[in-house]
Amino acid sequence: MGYLIFGAFLLLMVIGVPIGLSIGVSALVVFLSSGIPLQMVPQTLLEGNNSFALVAVPFFVLAGDILARGGISERIVAFAEAGLGRVRGGLSIVSVLASMLIAAISGSGAATTAAVGASLLPDLKEKKYDVDFSAALIASAGTIGVVIPPSVPMVLYAVIAGESVSRLFMGGFIPGILMGTGLIGWALYVAKKRNYPAGEKLPGKEVWRRFLSATWGLMAPVIILGGIFSGIFTPSEAAAIAVVYTVLVAVFVYKALDFKKFYKLVVGSGVTSALIMFIIATAKLFGWGLAFYQIPQAIAGAIMGLAHNIPFLVYLMIAVIILLAGMFMETASALIILTPIFIPAVLGIGGNLTHFGVILTVGLAIGMATPPVAINIYVASAITGLPMGKISKPIIPMILILILVLFICLYVPDVVLFLPRLIMK
């Protein structure tokens, strides 16, 4: 039955059926071939979306869109540039740091890439930075958008695995910082090698002005994450507060968002959220079919048998599968499918589900910048006008750096679990 469900899924994917329908139809094949009452189908679909934590998904998607289009990201980037632009290759550093700051608001890799790319790529081109390298750096830094909280994939994982969203958010900080630090190190090396220019030193008054202008945007992650970790509100409530706050700032402070633009953002984020929720519903059906025939347990047994029950090898096999899945599948879809499959194997070797959730998120985030299906590269390509192939070559060493961070986090669990254990006892 496992061959049937996965074979149907892969066949539908190959012939170009949308991912949500591929998941649902392949699960339906199991129902039809097993004689399970079809009344179970609508019940299971509805159950898939019956979780309060999922309320956060559409709100974080909308907050990320407002961030990118409401004048907030531009001011954060301008402030970062004022502080670091004068360093040789400083704009490359700004690209990564701005991505890390915006990641703490958007919860989306594509939104982070779009916000930083639209703000910085024209300056990078004007100051004689190689456009292909700059686009690759911004695309790879965009992966941090789903690792540093808030994170839509972490919310989805928490719902499926029954884990704490707050613990997952806290566990994403250090891996996200390590990803950013590695990319900054590479950017400085390339800047020195290619002799990228240093920017002009801005007067202190201008730096202060940009800081004050960016303060409203910089306060967003403080309010959102501070409220979650202090227990003032839940992650779902924080998502709603993020939307309200970014709307107020974009409309009344920066005056960059009118009703027409806001309406388009709401419609666009609504479509995106509906697609995600549909995939979650069909994935619940898919997962039910897997669980009914105990397929995850069989896969876990096969993995542990091949790895001889050695945790190092089990984690290695899982990590390779995650990276390959991220290369060919959209992040949310891959996460929803892989989570119930791998949890038995992780528990079988005594793994921690918070640790695994962050690892899964980081691994799939890397896929967002790894061809052939690389949404961040698509976004960077659309902004620069460069073909994907032109961006894909310089991004390779950056992907290797991110994979190195993934394995550090994988085999040194305290990197992920230090903050959750310290702050959320």
What does this structure look like?
The protein is mainly α and 425 residues long. It has one domain (2-423). Helices cover 79% and strands 0% of the residues.
Task: Tell me the span between the first and last alpha carbons.
Answer: 42 Å
Q: Counting H and I runs of at least 4 residues, what is the number of helices?
A: 21
Mean pLDDT: 84
Instruction: Give the strand content.
Output: under 5%
Overall geometry comes to: globular
Structural class: mainly alpha
List the secondary-structure elements in sequence, H or E. Answer: HHHHHHHHHHHHHHHHHHHHH
Unreliable residue stretches: none
Task: Name the helicity range.
Answer: over 70%
Keywords for this entry:
425 residues, mainly alpha
SSE topology sketch:
Blueprint: H1 2-14, H2 19-34, H3 40-48, H4 56-69, H5 72-84, H6 90-106, H7 109-126, H8 131-141, H9 152-161, H10 165-194, H11 204-229, H12 235-253, H13 259-292, H14 295-306, H15 311-328, H16 331-348, H17 353-367, H18 375-384, H19 388-392, H20 396-411, H21 414-423
Helix pairs in contact: 1-2, 2-13, 3-13, 4-7, 4-12, 4-13, 5-6, 5-7, 5-11, 6-7, 6-8, 6-10, 7-8, 7-18, 8-18, 9-16, 9-17, 10-17, 10-20, 10-21, 11-12, 13-16, 14-16, 15-16, 15-17, 16-17, 17-20
